[in-house]
TrEMBL record:
Residues 653-672 are annotated as: Disordered. It holds the Pfam family T6SS_Tle1-like_cat. Residues 292-414 form the T6SS Phospholipase effector Tle1-like catalytic domain. This is DUF2235 domain-containing protein. Signal peptide: none annotated.
Length: 714
């Protein structure tokens, strides 16, 4: 299959809720029509009327993305938006009842949809509060990801039980107990099938087999509970009410760490289904509850693992030991796309944070069969969404209809439906339809930018290199010392003070970064000829700087189409992302910090005034008692420093007067220079860099511009 830059988008995307607009006549009749026959329950007194298929949809949200929390800011992720148009029964208590499917729900009793909130957000079903230390660990290291995968596996079992017996097999309390007994990692997945006759036993195999044994217990309970509904060798069941199930079709979606979870979940679900088939003595197929399972589609938005210690640590000693693929998220097993699974992976063209390396679905740049990897302009959350309408001044529509993230949403929606996923936007509620609307101006702006791009197919590296170059050139044209600085742009003017503070502070850091880069380049001398990077995008900034130096002084300024696109549609993911603790990444926390700053400022002023009076009085009494020239002078009073700095002190005072966030400097981003303020993390993580991309192995980084053949990497 193909790796490519996204193609020009048709204006029909602005009417995604209309089947006649978003799909061609042939697609509606030949493709969707065929899938709909599988979805419908036959009616009448014929034998066919007693047979049906089940449809399961699993939706893994990204870090800090949470359907309920997003209600206030209208910043639902694209995974949550896709969940809205998958019909059928929801998992009880996860989401409010007002999110349930409404349209002819009696016709979708054989459809089940499962939503999994992102790590670093509340998910009480697994005991994750999404606050305090759990939130910090979730955001930094993916804490809670394994529990979410296991919970989803148990819901697949519950779905079958719910279809036949109208209640789950496993209660919420029992589910939480199971979460504490099962570990998901590569060693345990290997043992989901018994060892072959002469296979050597590995250390810890006895301990690692416990995961399989736990799954066997649960599956045996399922088989016993639905025994009268399970098919015999001829496909018939003793009890045909509500129906005889022919096949279970499964679709899976994920964004960011949710995409990582989706990939691991797919592999574990296949292992569980293979185990079920062995228990049911069915060879050559995968089953669940004895029913054959087929996987329709895997839809991924910008996979970022960062599980455990990740690429945040760069080239430090720890950074070389850990790469964000800990536990359940290893690259060469759990994150691989199994053969034959249709998959679409949308990749963010302009994400550059060191903490957000990409895990390509390719293996040494070769895509698995039936898989596509499409590069989409924008940063991480411009693909998966999560930005609020108007955030950073991007967008004017209060409902977010002019946001760039709507385009990858609809692109994924189309691909999924054409692959057989039973998404039904045309029958979803009006709120769900509103969340799919995209303005024609946004489509026009993207297409105008795409027309300037030269590399459209080939290696992921070649496409990403051009996109990275385009972004750096745009940013250079908006540096503070340019004639058209970022601060003079219309989008900056529209932004809130909170966003302006981050954007301006980050732009000031970029200016310092440029000065350091140009000083390094000048130090190379006039005879220096920069070379493209060799294989393996590493974290060594000098290699990346040399790559940038190949075009820094010769590349033309970006045109109006590029300037408009980045100015008004692409967010700055580094500006708001605060790696260093106690630096708020949202307005609510910033207001709390300003309250603390103002309180501290006032306390220190009061303390200094009181202490100054006391010392002055003591000085007066000393002089009176000993005489003015006695030499018994007290030390002058030294005022206590509030440690806010001039800018922080001014900001705190202004906040105290207005109650609003003032213009001020912010910090705490991934540092572009090493310092103890960054806890010793490796530096050079600013804007003059490329994104790190893994290709199926921890040690394989995509950088070669040569397209390898399958024979070369076999």
């Amino acid at each position: 299959m193909t790796i490519k830059l996204i193609e020009r988008i048709p204006v029909s995307y602005s009417a995604a809720h209309s089947l006649n607009d978003i799909f061609s006549d042939r697609e509606r009749q030949d493709v969707l029509g065929g899938y709909e026959k599988l979805e419908r329950c036959p009616k009448g007194n014929t034998a066919a009327a007693c047979k049906t298929n089940l449809f399961f949809g699993f939706f893994f949200d990204g870090t800090k993305n949470n359907y309920i929390r997003a209600e206030a800011g209208k910043n639902h992720s694209n995974v949550a938006r896709l969940y809205d148009c998958f019909p059928g029964l929801s998992t009880p208590t996860v989401l409010p009842e007002n999110t349930d499917w409404i349209h002819k729900k009696e016709e979708y009793s054989h459809f089940f949809r499962v939503y999994i909130p992102g790590v670093a957000s509340p998910f009480e079903q697994i005991g994750d509060s999404g606050t305090g230390l759990q939130e910090t660990r979730g955001a930094a290291a993916g804490y809670g990801g394994e529990g979410r995968i296991l919970w989803a596996l148990l819901q697949a079992i519950n779905n079958i039980h719910r279809y036949f017996l109208k209640k789950p097999l496993l209660s919420p309390d029992e589910t939480r107990s199971i979460l504490n007994r099962i570990v998901l990692d590569r060693a345990r997945r290997r043992l989901m099938q018994p060892r072959r006759q002469f296979e050597r036993e590995m250390p810890n195999d006895e301990q690692n087999e416990k995961t399989r044994l736990e799954f066997e217990k649960i599956l045996k309970r399922l088989h016993a509970a639905i025994a009268v509904h399970m098919p015999d060798k001829y496909g018939n069941a003793r009890q045909k009410d509500p129906a005889t199930v022919k096949k279970i079709f499964i679709s899976i979606f994920g964004f960011s760490r949710g995409a990582t979870q989706a990939r691991a979940f797919l592999n574990w679900l296949m292992s569980m289904c293979t185990l079920d088939a062995r228990m049911c003595k069915k060879e050559g197929v995968m089953t669940l509850g004895g029913f054959e399972v087929a996987f329709n589609f895997l839809g991924l938005f910008d996979t970022v693992a960062s599980v455990g210690l990740g690429n945040t640590l760069g080239n430090s000693l720890l950074g070389k030991m850990f790469d964000g693929h800990g536990g359940w998220a290893d690259t060469d097993d759990s994150l691989r796309i199994p053969p034959g699974i249709p998959c679409l992976h949308l990749v963010a063209a302009h994400e550059l944070r060191r903490s957000f390396p990409l895990d390509s679905i390719s293996v040494k740049q070769v895509l698995p069969p039936n898989c596509d990897e499409v590069v989409v302009p924008g940063v991480h959350s411009d693909l998966g969404c999560g930005y609020m309408p108007g955030e950073q001044g991007r967008g004017l529509d209060s409902m977010g209809g002019d946001m760039l993230s709507r385009i990858p949403l609809i692109y994924m929606y189309r691909a999924a439906r054409l692959a057989g996923v039973p998404l039904k936007l045309e029958f979803a509620n009006e709120v769900a339809k509103e969340r799919f609307k995209v303005a024609p101006e946004t489509i026009k702006a993207l297409n105008a930018y795409l027309a300037t791009c030269k590399v459209r197919t080939g290696t992921l590296t070649a496409i990403m290199r051009e996109q990275g170059k385009n972004q750096i050139l745009w940013r250079r044209s908006r540096r503070p010392t340019s004639k058209t600085p970022l601060e003079a742009s219309a989008s900056f003017g529209r932004a809130s003070n909170f966003d302006k503070n981050d954007l301006h502070s980050a732009n000031q850091e970029f200016e310092q970064e440029i000065c350091e880069f140009e000083e390094w380049l000048a130090g190379k001398g006039k005879g220096f000829k920069a070379k493209e990077q060799g294989p393996g995008f590493d974290n060594t900034h000098k290699n990346e700087w040399e790559e940038i130096a190949t075009w820094w002084n010769s590349a033309p300024q970006p045109g109006a189409e590029t300037l408009n696109f980045f100015d008004n549609y692409v967010h700055d993911s580094r500006a708001w992302f605060k790696l260093i603790p106690k630096n708020p990444d949202n307005e609510k926390d910033m207001i709390e910090k300003l309250k603390e700053m103002e309180s501290r400022r006032k306390r220190v002023i009061q303390f200094n005034e009181t202490e100054a009076k006391i010392v002055a009085e003591q000085q007066k009494n000393t002089r009176k008692y000993y005489g003015k020239n006695s030499g018994m002078e007290l030390q002058p009073f030294k005022p206590l420093d509030d440690e806010l700095g001039d800018d922080g002190r001014r900001a705190a005072e202004e906040f105290g007067r207005t109650g609003k966030i003032p213009r001020m400097k912010t910090k705490g981003r991934e540092p572009f220079d090493s310092s103890w303020a960054s806890y010793g993390l490796s530096g050079k993580a600013g804007y003059l860099r490329y994104r790190k991309v893994y290709s199926g192995y921890d040690s394989v980084l995509i950088s070669s511009n040569r397209q390898p053949t399958e024979e070369a990497v076999a």
